[in-house]
Amino acid sequence: MRDDAALVLFSGGQDSATCLAWALDRFAHVETLGFDYGQRHRVELEVRATFRARLLREFPHWAARLGEDHVLALDALRAVSDTALTRDTEIAMQADGLPNTFVPGRNLIFVTFAAALAYRRGLRHLVAGMCETDYSGYPDCRDDTLKALQVAVNLGMERRFVLHTPLMRRDKAATWVLADRLGGAPLVEAVREDTHSCYLGDRAQRHDWGYGCGACPACDLRRRGWDAWRGAHA
Predict the structure, then answer these.
(1) For the structural domain made of 2-197, what CATH number should be given?
(2) Which reaction does it catalyse (predicted)?
(3) Per the annotation, does 198 bind a ligand?
């Protein structure tokens, strides 16, 4: 198992794209993994290739480190969930205080499948964009959840994977700061233009912070983070 190699859970969104740059800055070999689970905003999978190609083109010092891309189909996740991310339904808050964009078990499943792929590929490090600082309250984004999952995966696979969550303590403004630190204006522009966060999958409307409907929780978080970051650098 290579200690200098990582697998990044790369959805195509702002957070995972920043984590991909973070991994390329640290590891000699980096592969990426996306999941097709019938998500409403499936366009995020389509922008992944565009973002990767831009990294290869504009960041030659990372190009030699960027390895194979993988996409796994997890149709069962859509079949067992009834959420605004897997059904054409209005986004709303639920009685339990969570938004109905929460897909139960999603990150638990994602990390487990990532570990299984990393096991086969011989990659020690797993990198994911979960965050509990500036998020929608999803319980499977919490640091305690991810630490417990790392223990379970390592015990169950008899490996010593290291799960990195570089954004866990960063809000969205700090995520833009990190992108700027890692790759300067070119990386910020790549994240802005070639990633997707909008839960409705809207790529028709262009905003200062990127593409999206501008009203869903994901767009709101991304916009507020962008405005805070830009305001601090005005």
Answers:
(1) 3.40.50.620
(2) 7-carboxy-7-carbaguanine + NH4(+) + 2 ATP = 7-cyano-7-carbaguanine + 2 AMP + 2 diphosphate + 2 H(+)
(3) yes
66-73/123-127 β-pairing = unpaired
Is 131 annotated in a binding site? The answer is no
Does the annotation flag 18 for ligand binding?
A: yes
pLDDT tens for the chain, 234 residues: list them. 899 999 999 999 999 999 999 999 999 999 999 999 888 778 999 999 999 999 999 999 999 999 999 999 988 878 777 776 666 777 666 665 666 677 778 899 999 999 999 999 999 999 999 998 876 678 888 999 999 999 999 999 999 999 999 999 999 999 999 999 999 999 999 999 999 999 999 999 999 999 999 999 899 999 999 999 998 875
The domain spans of the chain are 2-197
Q: Give the pTM.
A: 0.94
16 is in an annotated binding site: yes
